[in-house]
Recover the amino acids of this structure.
């Protein structure tokens, strides 16, 4: 009888435990990637595995609201499932046609007591990643919230290598150096920028970021004693309130876990744009990539002549003429020294004065005359503005800029990604679209695939870049190589490209005017292909470019693409990115500070004969990093090209079909 009693008790315990824990799962179309949701009376959690390898384990989901915690004592409603398989076009992007192919599961989670608050967890499983978000449907007893915390966790299994950036606080420029360490060496209680990338010992790679950030706060990561948790940017001036929503329905951004069997595969995914809404701009015929000067970087240098450099017509005429001679689309106008082109009573780029007015050019500039001269030369205008005085007069300013013939704007010093700033950015994109203007967000947070919805968002900064060469030594090839594996995974990356005056690291000296760079000429050329950027920037002077080897690349490299392949990549060491434009291929190979030899298979080409123009580091590049070798030869998809990459070097190939 005792044995029978123990047996029956065991059966009852197992049945009770099983009934108390509910598990739901969804797998990718190829079946290799799986998301498992676990609901118990106490918590809701999830896990992710790839080819049966655990990647994310037992990670909690939930919220802290003004109306109480959400995540315990929940019941599951009717689960909805569907398959999604569609293609869509991108006006600008790393591909022109993308496939949105995934399996979706929507799980209604309802409180058993109280007001019966309801939150739907939407999960999509792609072949190259998992995405989930929280959806707040209309409901009788709950129609808004003040959120104190989103409690999403991302608890990595094992001890992978991590490439990440720490940030000092929620108000920041989103710029710092990257750290490449084991997961157990990641510092606790420090903000970590997204995307963060993890590489397991068997080569499987994971990147964590977010998509479709709209009317919500941006997210960071933080390692705590409980694991890797998401941390939302709080409302400005306090830290308790993260998000306020006054009406349902509402949806959070997607939490994205990109997965690939090799780290280069992370660069090829289109998961972020697939998670965003279709284009909201009816007429997109005016949206075309732009090639522009950006004279702030070089110091607005002009040759010795009869006029002085500055906020004047003659200085801008000099650069407009350069743009016209070389087929550039626009000339960038920011002002001179630390004085904007418009009236600002503070005379400081970073801190706009209370009476700054972006509709009033300073008298000595004569903006209407500059705009008329540029129009006559077939050159557009690209304006720099501080976000705050722009936002004060958004509609008025954009109407004026459209009248002047401005192509687009660099909107700078945003330095936040709280809910208010996220809303402001979308308002700027919407208003800019009405006036046929592209936007370049500077001093801003990462992109999130919104370029599908608003293709006039050409690029964002959100990374330490070559502007730093004007005052520090932090940005070199060892920093550059981290960007494709981190920041660029989120989208187009503004990096102040185009420095054509390189010095070896040992001879580098800081210069604010006519600054130098520490990587080779071929490294710089490769950056234009490796980094996705729909605003091709030429930051150096006309004298630094004209007549120089490789300048023809800057004049012709496309700003949007049809296809991407990543044939060679090793995280934080080297990467080779091949991008197709029509029948042409452009290939950029980027190296860190260690010399190496690579063998590049051209099997991404179609059948037939091609002509390849190959730029490689010259033999004396260690003494003169501006030197390069240029070779033209016939190739087919069966060829293998040997790339001898110098320290701080690179290579570039332009392959045309014959």
């Amino acid at each position: 009888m005792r044995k029978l009693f123990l047996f029956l008790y065991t059966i009852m315990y197992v049945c009770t435990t099983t009934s108390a824990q509910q598990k739901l799962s969804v797998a990718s179309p190829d079946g290799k990637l799986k998301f498992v949701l676990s609901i118990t009376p106490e918590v809701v959690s999830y896990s992710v595995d790839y080819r049966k390898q655990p990647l994310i384990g037992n990670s909690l989901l939930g919220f802290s609201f003004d109306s109480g915690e959400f995540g315990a004592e929940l019941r599951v409603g009717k689960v909805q499932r569907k398959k999604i398989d569609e293609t869509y076009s991108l006006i600008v992007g790393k591909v022109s046609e993308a496939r949105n192919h995934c399996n979706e599961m929507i799980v209604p989670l309802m409180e058993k007591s109280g007001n019966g608050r309801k939150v739907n967890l939407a999960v999509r499983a792609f072949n190259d990643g998992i995405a989930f978000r929280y959806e707040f449907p209309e409901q009788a007893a709950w129609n808004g919230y003040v959120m104190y915390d989103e409690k999403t966790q991302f608890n990595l299994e094992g001890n992978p290598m991590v490439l990440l950036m720490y940030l000092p606080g929620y108000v920041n420029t989103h710029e710092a150096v990257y750290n490449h360490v084991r997961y157990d060496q990641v510092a606790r209680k420090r903000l970590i920028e997204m995307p963060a990338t993890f590489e397991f010992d068997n080569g499987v790679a994971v990147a964590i970021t977010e998509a479709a950030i709209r009317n919500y706060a941006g997210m960071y990561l933080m390692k705590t004693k409980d694991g890797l948790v998401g941390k939302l940017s709080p409302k400005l001036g306090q830290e308790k309130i993260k998000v306020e929503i006054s009406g349902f329905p509402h949806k959070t951004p997607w939490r994205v876990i990109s997965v690939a069997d090799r780290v280069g595969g992370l660069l090829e995914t289109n998961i972020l744009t697939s998670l965003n809404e279709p284009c909201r701009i009816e007429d997109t015929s005016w949206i075309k990539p732009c090639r522009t000067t950006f004279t702030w970087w070089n110091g607005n240098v002009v040759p010795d002549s009869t006029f002085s450099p500055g906020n004047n017509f003659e200085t801008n005429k000099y650069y407009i003429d350069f743009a016209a001679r070389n087929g550039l689309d626009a000339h960038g106008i920011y002002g001179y020294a630390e004085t904007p082109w418009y009236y600002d009573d503070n005379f400081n780029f970073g801190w706009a004065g209370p009476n700054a007015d972006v509709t009033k050019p300073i008298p000595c500039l004569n903006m209407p005359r500059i705009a008329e001269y540029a129009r006559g030369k077939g050159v557009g205008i690209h304006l720099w503005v501080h976000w705050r005085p722009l936002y004060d007069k958004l509609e008025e300013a954009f109407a004026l800029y459209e009248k002047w013939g401005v192509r687009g704007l660099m909107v700078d010093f945003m330095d936040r990604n709280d809910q208010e700033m996220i809303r402001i950015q979308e308002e700027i994109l919407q208003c800019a679209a009405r006036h046929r203007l592209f936007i370049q967000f500077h001093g801003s947070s990462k992109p999130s695939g919104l370029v599908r919805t608003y293709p006039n968002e050409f690029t964002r900064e959100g990374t330490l870049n070559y502007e730093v060469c004007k005052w520090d030594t932090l940005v070199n090839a060892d920093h550059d190589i981290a960007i494709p594996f981190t920041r660029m995974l989120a989208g187009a990356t503004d990096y102040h490209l185009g420095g054509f005056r390189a010095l070896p690291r040992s001879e580098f000296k800081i210069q604010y005017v006519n600054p130098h760079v520490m990587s080779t000429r071929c490294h710089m050329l490769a950056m234009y292909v490796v980094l996705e950027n729909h605003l091709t920037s030429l930051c150096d002077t006309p004298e630094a470019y004209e007549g120089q080897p490789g300048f023809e690349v800057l004049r012709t490299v496309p700003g949007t693409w049809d296809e991407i392949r990543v044939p060679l990549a090793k995280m934080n060491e080297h990467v080779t990115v091949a991008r197709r434009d029509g029948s042409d291929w452009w290939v950029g190979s980027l190296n860190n500070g260690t010399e190496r030899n690579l063998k590049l298979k051209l099997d991404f080409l179609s059948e037939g004969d091609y002509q390849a123009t190959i730029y490689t580091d010259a033999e004396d590049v260690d003494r003169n990093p501006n030197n390069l070798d240029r070779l033209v030869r016939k190739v087919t998809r069966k060829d293998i090209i040997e790339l001898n990459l110098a320290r701080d070097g690179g290579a570039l190939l332009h392959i045309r079909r014959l």
Remarks:
- The chain is about 15% helix and 35% strand.
